[in-house]
Amino acid sequence: xxxxxxxxxxxxxxxxxxxxxxxxxxxxxxxxxxxxxxxxxxxxxxxxxxxxxxxxxxxxxxxxxxxxxxxxxxxxxxxxxxxxxxxxxxxxxxxxxxxxxxxxxxxxxxxxxxxxxxxxxxxxxxxxxxxxxxxxxxxxxxxxxxxxxxxxxxxxxxxxxxxxxxxxxxxxxxxxxxxxxxxxxx
Length: 186
Description:
Family: Belongs to the V-ATPase E subunit family.
Shape: rod-shaped
GO molecular function, one term: proton-transporting ATPase activity, rotational mechanism
Pfam families: vATP-synt_E
Number of strands: 2
CATH architecture of the domain at 105-174: 2-Layer Sandwich
GO cellular component, one term: proton-transporting two-sector ATPase complex, catalytic domain
Low-confidence stretches: none
Structural class: mainly alpha
Order of helices and strands: HHEHE
Distance between the termini: 139 Å
Largest sheet: 2 strands, parallel
Organism: Arachis hypogaea (Peanut)
Strand content: under 5%
């Protein structure tokens, strides 16, 4: 073989090695590109997941704040309602206390009130025998309405009329002189 053939053969070998090297480099490049894209996709997905979790956490915080705010507003409105109710009850107590000072001046109305109070008490107690206490000055009026009150109770409760004994030893305190003097009696 002459130098030209050897040189040609060496050139072919160099070209073949170069081609193999380029193919191998391309394979490595493609493989590296694929691995890069996979890694990039994994990183992007991981960051998306973190962002979603952060968004959900913040959304829950907003919901909790809204619930707290709603609850606070609801409580404030309840307090306003309770205050308004308290004012109405207070004014009703004041008006009732003023009316109580004058109720015993109207004998028919007062006796009817006594009868209704006795019936209401009997309905609450639901006892066959009751000891009734009243003011000393009301004994006559109470005795006057006692039978009708017992009968009305018996009709409403669908029972026999109870035995009602008026206590003549212990009396309730006398009527107050001013509407602000009304205090609970125990």
